[in-house]
């Protein structure tokens, strides 16, 4: 078996990550539910889903341990949240300047 084949065969063994973004506090009105195994490049939220995130769940995986939420497209601008601090936030309005500000996110190792 070649090395690339072995790597592809091992991917399902890697634990998957999952990100869920909600428009209301207490994990109500899901607007994004994304999962995978590897890190992912920056993702802009779709039109109508920007600047409405009020709560989220982040479940890290073995090949993607952190998500960073940004207040501008293309993962630029200010960091709204870095999941190195906390992975489940049920009410972003408790944090000054964080509620209804997310426009993009990046999933990192």
Number of domains: 1
**Rg to the nearest angstrom?**
15 Å
Helical stretch count? 1
- What's the mean pLDDT score? 90
Named CATH architecture: Sandwich
Q: What structural class do helix, strand and pairing data support?
A: mainly beta
Q: What spatial form do the alpha-carbon principal axes imply?
A: globular
Q: Any idea what the CATH superfamily is called?
A: Crystallins
Number of strands: 8
List keywords for this structure.
109 residues, four-stranded antiparallel β-sheet, 39% strand, Gamma-B Crystallin, domain 1, 8 strands, mainly beta, globular
Describe the protein's architecture and organization.
With 109 residues, the protein is mostly beta strands. It has a single domain, classed as Crystallins (Gamma-B Crystallin, domain 1). Helices cover 7% and strands 39% of the residues. It has 1 helix and 8 strands. The chain has a 4-stranded antiparallel sheet with strand order 2-1-4-7, with no helix packed on it. Strands 3-8-5-6 form a 4-stranded antiparallel sheet, with no helix packed on it. The longest helix is centred in the N-terminal third of the chain and has 8 residues, at 3-10. The protein starts with a helix and ends with a strand. The relative contact order is 0.24. The mean pLDDT is 90. Residues 1-16 form the signal peptide. Keywords: Signal.
Task: Write the SSE topology.
Blueprint: H1 3-10, E1 17-24, E2 28-36, E3 40-44, E4 55-59, E5 66-70, E6 79-82, E7 88-89, E8 104-108
Antiparallel strand pairs: 1-2, 1-4, 3-8, 4-7, 5-6, 5-8
